[in-house]
């Protein structure tokens, strides 16, 4: 059961602030541009940032998110999430087990888990997760994923059978985020499509609008 001060995961685009995409741009600046576009949830992913820099960046990004009224999650790093005061974490296939993340974070933080199917979503719920990231929905070049592409129809089946809110992951951008929303997703993770845009804030605004349009047209899409 959610406690009063445990933030709900906002519905819509789930923006990643990633140190591997446009590495010349500071993480805090990436986050600022995402938030300027109206981002409601940001996952900070730092695979190549040294620990001291990562902690400083996490604190800065978390503070900016909270000032903007957005939820900030840390990818994998439960330690940084605790030290920076983040709203929670997202753990993947090779990260800390969700049970351990929940044990360390306690009941008042958000825990998200990457899964590949509805069975994984059910296991994640038992482990104490609040939501699951499911994919890859489409092919992606941002991250090597050892799992087959689901496609929109396969993704919709997982959404239908999942006991937790589902965030679509893998290859999501402006061209297809509406399809992910129409398939019943609670959110859609976007990395390169936002961060590589000439105007990041404007791209986020368009992603938000496209997701909302997909939700409004959801009756036109049904899982087989």
TrEMBL record:
Keyword Metal-binding attached: yes
Record key words, sorted: Magnesium, Metal-binding, Thiamine biosynthesis, Transferase
InterPro entries in the record: Aldolase_TIM, ThiamineP_synth_sf, ThiamineP_synth_TenI, TMP_synthase
UniProt: 2-[(2R,5Z)-2-carboxy-4-methylthiazol-5(2H)-ylidene]ethyl phosphate binding residues: 140-142, 171, 191-192
Protein name (database record): Thiamine-phosphate synthase
Sites where the protein binds Mg(2+): 76, 95
SUPFAM superfamilies in the record: Thiamin phosphate synthase (SSF51391)
HAMAP family, per database record: TMP_synthase
Residue positions binding 4-amino-2-methyl-5-(diphosphooxymethyl)pyrimidine: 43-47, 75, 114, 143
Role summary: Condenses 4-methyl-5-(beta-hydroxyethyl)thiazole monophosphate (THZ-P) and 2-methyl-4-amino-5-hydroxymethyl pyrimidine pyrophosphate (HMP-PP) to form thiamine monophosphate (TMP).
């Amino acid at each position: 059961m959610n406690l009063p001060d445990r933030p709900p995961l906002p519905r819509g685009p789930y923006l990643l602030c990633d140190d591997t995409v446009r590495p010349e741009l500071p993480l805090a600046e990436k986050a600022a541009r995402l938030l300027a576009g109206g981002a409601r949830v940001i996952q900070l992913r730092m695979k190549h940032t040294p620990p001291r820099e990562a902690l400083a960046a996490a604190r800065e990004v978390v503070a900016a998110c909270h000032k903007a009224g957005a939820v900030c999650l840390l990818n994998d790093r439960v330690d940084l999430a605790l030290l920076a005061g983040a709203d929670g974490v997202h753990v993947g296939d090779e990260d800390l087990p969700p049970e351990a993340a929940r044990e360390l974070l306690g009941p008042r933080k958000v825990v998200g888990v990457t899964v590949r199917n509805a069975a994984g979503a059910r296991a994640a719920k038992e482990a104490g997760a609040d939501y699951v990231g499911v994919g890859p929905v489409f092919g992606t070049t941002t991250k090597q994923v050892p799992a087959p592409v689901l496609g929109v129809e396969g993704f919709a089946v997982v959404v239908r059978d999942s006991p937790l809110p589902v965030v679509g992951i893998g290859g999501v951008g402006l061209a297809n985020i509406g399809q992910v929303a129409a398939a019943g997703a609670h959110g859609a993770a976007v990395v390169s499509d936002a961060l590589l845009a000439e105007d990041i804030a404007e791209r986020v605004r368009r992603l938000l609008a496209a997701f909302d349009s997909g939700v409004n047209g959801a009756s036109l899409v049904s899982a087989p």
